[in-house]
Design a protein that fits this description.
two-stranded antiparallel ribbon; Pdz3 Domain; alpha+beta; 12 strands; single chain; 4-stranded antiparallel beta sheet
């Protein structure tokens, strides 16, 4: 006989897993819906809009488009006539992607990532107007303390407020970060307020990329606003978070910050963790992933939308189309590289999971 507690835990796990899969699939479907809508608006023939991958379990046809639900519910895809490199298309077929002007093909590709970004802005607006959205507090207040970090070794705790570094006052989180970064591998005196009482601690920031790092996260605060004001605030917060992501990516490329790659397993873990924490944290995580999807797909990497946009920009500027075989080969190499990177991140995620 299976205990009721075990059944409850299993049901809870399945519910969380279902929510995570549906949320991630929704983000991908929004992306593909952008490609679909603009392709149709440009007069292109969309042969299939599938929610999920693999064998089709249900479908219906409206006009020239088959709308399908496939067996693997991880995302979806849009099949536009003339988009596959080896597809046989009549030279005079005006509804084929390959026969459309470059600027129209550019819009079709661009709108996928753009829809993820617009979706993030609208989600931020909805959260600010209802449940609220969590954003970093600009004050030098401690949120997360990374296990094994210099901060943990120094005795810092969540809720502490750091008021000075080596006697110099810090009035913001940005000022705290700058002060710590300037002191790698050096003992630092931290004047802290804990529960209203002053406390002096000594930390030795880890040296990462030549900069000091304590291993802290800022405190988070909940932001709410009326619906009219929430839209502007949602756009501003989304833009700010996108800027943070791009800045972090720039630091990783310049090796000023150590890269910690997360793959599908790691992302699913974080989404599941936020789902268990409540509606607001979960929606905040979905919002963040939507921004990441938009930015990642715009990177000028072959096989991604950004890589395709590079070829289209070349065509628009020079009025010469890149040889189709050359472009498809470049995208194939990019796809293999991305797939290999995903496999590496999956192994890394699993290693972290089983060594906890």
């Amino acid at each position: 006989m299976i205990p009721a507690v075990a059944l409850s835990a299993a049901a809870s796990f399945l519910a969380v897993a279902l929510v995570v899969v549906l949320a991630f699939s929704f983000l991908i479907v929004i992306h593909e819906a952008g490609h679909f809508a603009v392709a149709r608006a440009c007069g292109m023939r969309v042969e299939r809009f599938s929610v999920g991958y693999g064998p089709v379990v249900w479908s219906t046809r409206r006009g020239e488009t088959e709308y399908a639900i496939s067996i693997l519910p991880f995302g979806g895809y849009v099949k536009i006539a003339g988009m596959a490199p080896d597809e046989e298309i009549a030279p005079g077929d005006p509804a084929a992607y390959s026969n459309q002007p470059a600027w129209r093909r550019f819009l079709v590709i661009l709108t996928g990532p753009a829809m993820n970004y617009v979706g993030a802005v609208l989600l931020a607006w909805a959260m600010i107007a209802t449940t609220g959205i969590r954003e970093p507090d600009p004050a030098p207040a401690v949120g997360e303390v990374v296990a094994g970090s210099a901060a943990e070794r120094a005795g810092l705790r969540e809720g502490d407020r750091i008021v000075a570094v080596d006697g110099a006052p810090v009035g913001s989180w940005a000022a705290l970060v700058s002060a710590v970064q300037a002191r790698p591998s050096r003992p630092v005196r931290l004047d802290v307020e804990r529960g209203g009482a002053p406390l002096a601690l000594t930390a030795v920031p880890d040296a990462i990329g030549g900069r000091g790092r304590l291993g802290l996260g800022p405190s988070m605060r909940l932001v709410r606003a009326p619906p009219a004001a929430a839209l502007g605030r949602g756009l501003a917060l989304t833009n700010a978070r996108a800027g943070d992501i791009l800045a972090g990516l720039g630091q990783m490329v310049s090796r000023k910050q150590q890269a910690e790659l997360r793959g599908p397993v790691g992302i699913a873990q974080e989404m599941a963790k936020s789902a268990r924490a409540g509606l607001a944290p979960f929606l905040s995580m979905v919002w963040f992933i939507s921004i990441v999807l938009a930015l990642f797909n715009l990177l000028p990497i072959p096989a991604l939308d950004g890589g395709r946009l590079v070829f289209l920009c070349y065509e628009i500027v020079t009025r010469r189309r890149v040889d189709e075989k050359v472009e498809s080969t470049v995208h194939l190499v990019g796809f293999i590289a991305i797939f290999g990177l995903i496999l590496l991140t999956v192994f890394g995620d699993l290693a972290r999971l089983f060594h906890r």
